[in-house]
Design a protein that fits this description.
Number of helices: 20
Number of strands: 16
Main location: membrane
Helix content: 40-55%
GO molecular function: glycerol-3-phosphate 2-O-acyltransferase activity; phosphatase activity
Largest sheet: 7 strands, mixed
Keywords: Acyltransferase, Membrane, Transferase, Transmembrane, Transmembrane helix
Structural class: alpha/beta
Radius of gyration: 27 Å
Membrane topology: Multi-pass membrane protein
Low-confidence stretches: 18-43
Protein name: Phospholipid/glycerol acyltransferase domain-containing protein
Shape: elongated
Length: 534
């Protein structure tokens, strides 16, 4: 009976807000702003500020001060609208249909005020969403987009203070994990969502949308925080007036200045792992383009898969490039010195298609070994694939047998990494072969990622090939000198570390000691091992 009551409450609230309250507020705004249509966008009209800009902030002696930030968008983030982040949650946590519904609501959102807009986006995004799914999204997907959109000036001001508190009107569950994990914020006060069991109802809790100036008073009582940072809108001025010292972020200056963009080398924490399918920030226009492209992308992915499965190497390569795949090949085919053993190609790992593209570019059949591969990927793979068991002895015997039969491809990282880092290399391959050829592989996509830690892996190749112009960079390095292999007296770990460094230098990447287990524990909360029933 609880769910029907929730629907009745929602219908009653929508009718009241839309038919009565919204018309009155809209009339006042039209009169006040003189039909200023810019107000209908997500960016409020600029207001003259009596507070200095963050550019005039003095960084010295702030370690013992308490700083409060008034919201995350327009202050800590350079974006004026939080719509793209709701879209990310709807697409990655809900479904493509939920994301489409959110996009179709844009015309309605444009005529609503800030409070109603947040309520509608929250309902569409969160209604029926599991709470643990939102926890996963806030941990594995959203931080990447927050970091890329972080305002450098605002972050430097925030990082200078000893104690930090952020007040935000957006749902707390969307920002708390990022603010605490990456920006070292001590407390986050935001809008709370109503839940029914382990599901979100899509409604706000009884306290409603957070009134930031009231929340500031409730949190600090009669004590005034030392420093306040907010936007130049009139709504934030009341909040900033409650602080001893206040600064504003000028949104127009931040938007037009490249100095406010956070460079990767200044990220609070290195961004090594992240999940999700979308490779772009889904603003309304970008999301519209994505949905328009989606049916064409599916047909194009099927066409590209058929090219690799049915046609010879030369034709598949030529027609693949003609279909929009950008392939950059460097290096030459190594000569084989031992007649009774194949060449071992050691690759950096970006997608499941790495061995396929390598085999096509070299125009020779290769065998790929993998720890986990879906049945669908095995069926559509144009090359031979062999599963490993994670038993070092058995896997070693399998790889030795395969090397006697022909050339072999191995990705010793054991899993993919999207960012410019190389994970720790397993040393097993170094014990099995003396003819080792490192292959530096990198990819670039503009719309969809072809890897996932928590989604359906069988769709990984399809999503990669759905990109309008996916890019593959393959550089075949020289054969490892025999004196640097195990046959030359080196240990397997030394050989693995040497090859990792050679590949990192070729790609401009950074070596790490992180493993597959570290990736899956962070992104999916498990060790990335699928247990099969005996």
């Amino acid at each position: 009976m609880e769910f029907p009551m929730v629907l009745l409450r929602l219908a009653d609230w929508v009718l009241y807000q839309l038919l009565a309250n919204s018309y009155y507020r809209a009339a006042r705004k039209m009169k006040s702003y003189g039909f200023h249509f810019g107000y209908l966008s997500s960016k409020p009209p600029p207001q003259p500020s009596s507070f200095p800009s963050v550019a005039k902030y003095d960084f010295e002696g702030r370690e013992s001060k308490t700083l409060v930030a008034c919201d995350i968008h327009r202050v800590l983030l350079r974006s004026h609208s939080f719509f793209p982040y709701f879209m990310l949650v709807a697409f990655e946590g809900g479904s493509i249909f939920r994301a489409l519904l959110l996009l179709l609501s844009c015309p309605v959102l444009l005529i609503l005020n800030h409070e109603l807009r947040l309520r509608v986006m929250t309902f569409i995004t969160f209604c029926g969403l599991r709470t643990n799914v939102m926890e996963s999204i806030s941990r594995a997907i959203l931080p990447k987009f927050y970091l890329e959109n972080l305002n450098l000036h605002s972050y430097q001001v925030l990082a200078s203070a000893g104690s930090k508190v952020v007040f935000t009107s957006v749902p707390r569950v969307m920002v708390e994990g990022f603010l605490k994990e990456y920006l070292s914020v001590g407390a986050v006060v935001g809008t709370e969502l109503h839940t029914v069991g382990c599901y979100f109802s899509g409604l706000l809790s009884g306290s409603g949308l957070l009134a930031k100036h009231r929340a500031l008073k409730d949190y600090f009582g009669d004590t005034k925080p030392d420093i306040g940072v907010g936007s130049s809108t009139v709504h934030d001025h009341l909040f900033l007036s409650l602080c001893k010292e206040a600064y504003v972020v000028n949104n127009e200056e931040s938007k037009n200045s490249s100095g406010s963009v956070m460079p990767r080398d200044k990220y609070p924490k290195p961004l090594i792992f992240h999940d999700g399918r979308l490779a772009f920030l889904p603003t309304p226009s970008a999301a519209l383009y994505m949905f328009m492209w989606f049916p064409f992308g599916i047909l194009l992915a099927i066409y590209r898969i058929l090219l690799g499965v049915l046609l010879p190497y030369g034709w598949a390569l030529s027609l693949g490039v003609w279909s929009g795949i950008n392939i950059n090949i460097k290096g030459s085919l190594p000569e084989k010195s031992e007649q009774n053993q194949g060449v071992l190609y050691v690759c950096s790992h970006r997608t499941l298609l790495d061995p396929v593209f390598l085999s096509t570019c070299l125009a020779k059949p290769l065998t790929a070994v993998t720890y986990s591969l879906s049945k669908v990927s095995e069926l559509i793979a144009p090359i031979r694939t062999v599963r490993l068991t994670r038993d070092r002895t058995k896997d070693g015997e399998t790889m030795e047998r395969l090397l006697r039969e022909g050339d072999l491809v191995v990705c010793p990282e054991g899993t993919t990494c999207r960012e410019p880092y190389l994970l720790r290399f397993s040393s097993l391959f170094a014990e099995l072969a003396d003819e080792i050829v490192p292959v530096a592989i990198n990819t670039h996509v503009s719309m969809f990622y072809g890897t996932t830690a928590s989604g359906l892996k069988c769709l990984d190749p399809i999503f990669f090939l759905m990109n309008p112009r996916p890019s593959y960079y393959i550089e075949v390095l020289g054969k490892v000198p025999k004196e640097l292999t195990c046959a030359g007296g080196r240990s397997s770990c030394e050989v693995a570390n040497y090859i990792q460094k050679e590949l990192a230098d070729a790609l401009g990447f950074e070596c790490t000691t992180l493993t597959r287990r570290d990736k899956y524990m962070m992104l999916a909360g498990n060790e990335g091992i699928v247990k099969q029933d005996k």
